Amino acid sequence: MSVRHRSAPGGRTRLRAVVPILIVTSLASLTGAQLTSADPPPAATTKSAEQARTLGTAVGVVRHAGPGGELLELQLPAPRTLTSGLPATEQARRAAARLLDAAPSGDLAIADGVGDPQAGVTISHPDGSQAHVALNGVAGAAFAPGSSWLAAVDAAGRLWRIDALSGSASQLAPGPFTGSIRFAASGELILVQAASIDAPFVSVVVRLAPETRREVLVDSEEGFVFSASELADASIAVVAHVFGGGVEVRRSAGGTMVRMASLDPNAIDASLSDDGTRIAYAADSIVYLQDLRRGVARRLGPGQMPRIAHDGSSLLVLRDGKSVLLAADGSELEQFPTATVGWSRCEGRCQP
Amino acid sequence: MIGRICIGLSFAVAVSLASASHALATDDYTLPFYDPSVPLSYGVDRDPRPCYQRDWANVLWADCNLHYGRVYDGHTGMDYPMPVVSPIAASRDGTVIDLFEGFGTEQFGINGNYVLVSHADGRRTLYYHLAQNGARVTVGQAVLAGQWIADSGCSGQCYGAHLHFEMRAVVGGRWTSVDPIFEKRFTTNPGRVPFLAAYLRESNSGSEVIMRYTTVTHWVEFLNAGGRTWRNNIGVGRVLLGTWNPPIRDSAFRAIDWPSSWVATNVDQSGVAPGAVGRFTFGLHAESPPGTYDEAFNVLANSLRWFDWARLGSFHVPIIVIANTRWGGPAG
Predict the structure, then answer these.
(1) Residue A2 is nearest to which of B126, B162, B170, comparing CB atoms?
(2) Is the CATH number of domain B29-178 2.70.70.10?
(3) Range 80-99 of B in CB contact (< 8 A) with A
(4) Domain coordinates of chain B in residue numbers?
(5) How far apart are CA A294 and CA A109, in angstroms?
(6) How far apart (Å, rounded) are the C-alpha atoms in residues B320 and B332?
(7) Do the chains contact at A8 and B162, CB–CB below 8 Å?
(8) pLDDT tens across A52-97, in order?
(9) pLDDT digits (tens, 9 = 90+) for A225-242
(10) In the CATH scheme, what is the code of domain B197-322?
(11) Could you give the ipTM of this predicted complex?
(12) Which among A8, A26, A87 is the nearest to B81, CB-wise?
């Protein structure tokens, strides 16, 4: 992490089976040191639907049926983040609040802003009422199975458990964790833990049991982990920059990690289909869709932040600040005027 | 008299640095950029406890507040604000062992672009928040202290363009962020850039009057205000005086002692430590017709970096060529 400054105007993909002891020791030590922290919980507030309307924080939701699932187009309050002076592409990223996750219950988790060190999380309920927690920056969040709470990582890399109804938060682990935060079907969290949030490498993948707060190391390849998620077969897929090499996708298999594919050396914002057969990513502002079984990457054209449908049949990308739904062959299926469009897991229960 | 655009600035730099010349003068790490006016905005927090901060001057704060110019809680590196796409230099000789440059130059997120260099003393230096495709090196490449290795940016968790520079060492069996400022690894606190010189004096501060077809000897002295020792017996990094405006220009006043058509001389001494004075002695030979001329020179760390000419006092030598009345050749 870095605070605001006053005067600021491919390669090798060999897997190592041996756990780098230095990394593990480093992270374990750091965690131990920070467990002594007595970080106060962030403030939580709630609003009725009427209060949200009156105060201008109400969230509008338009549902769209698309190939690959339901899409939610959010009409969000004005952004908190100042975007002047940034390139247009980056303005699009930071221009507004951001949908973090949509729970099957219909609850939505929305970050107040991107790149805003003061941003918190708004939880919007299907009846229009809201809860808000002042997290001091949001790196990522995800609803737990059952939707009664969500896990969120703040800008300092701390992991919080947030009650979906009240917004009250308690710290689950000091981390620091990066913004990649997913739940396994078992209810465990899959997180990326870094030695430092200032410069988050080396980073490793851990499973964390929310009830016991016990962490288990899943992947410790020396490098720079971008994201980790559970696939439909319960294996863990990891997208990472390999130390000294390129970007690769690997998955856990019987306690070891197996390389699935190499991506473009500049690949970022990778998004995997639930079955782990397709991955979308951006590299130098071009979006690619790669079939992991055949290893073939298809260039889909300009765009950023691809988010693949759960079944991999289509994907959302950002183009010039707009959300665009693309078919797997790159053809444009639908265009939305804002960046705040995301895949739903609501199965028809999302508001209104 | 030789005009000096920035004589005042040079004098000020010379005086301030002369007073620090007693400081440790070794070829250790230097600041990882070239502009000496870049300030430290936040340094390493040397206290691992949350909400306890110990800065590079060993001052302890029992709070979580930001302390500009010193430290913020939990910070593992040194932040230097600078516009995006500013040149970033290797802090010491080493080998590039890792880099990533795929994020947008100002793309906000947890992760950003970086170059990681390993050094012979077992330490690593990390250059973070870099520009997209901003690495000017490749993995496995050997780099020299002061070599331009990357362009700065604001990728990652960055709220204002800056360089996050981090030094890591294995301490107690694990990679740990260390504070080179506290350790006085930058020659002075809060540090010196690799290549910097300040004009001091020269053999003739007025115009050199040269009779046509003859040679005069000129010398100029500069204070080594940077963090690297000037040497004259190496290839890459050798400190020399070359023609300027434009650079690498064949000189009409090249004398027989010049190493090449644009290199007037290497620094006279075999080694000029940071804080010491280096002299450059060279001949000026007049073949040009009588008249008034001006020859500009700048200091170069060979194959690495030209020095900042303005901070060098915009060094140039006014030359008046007069007719040679003793030589039997054509008049004028």
Answers:
(1) B162
(2) yes
(3) 81-83, 97-98
(4) 29-178, 197-322
(5) 36
(6) 13
(7) yes
(8) 989 888 888 888 887 878 888 888 776 555 555 556 555 555 555 7
(9) 999 999 988 899 999 999
(10) 2.60.40.10
(11) 0.83
(12) A8
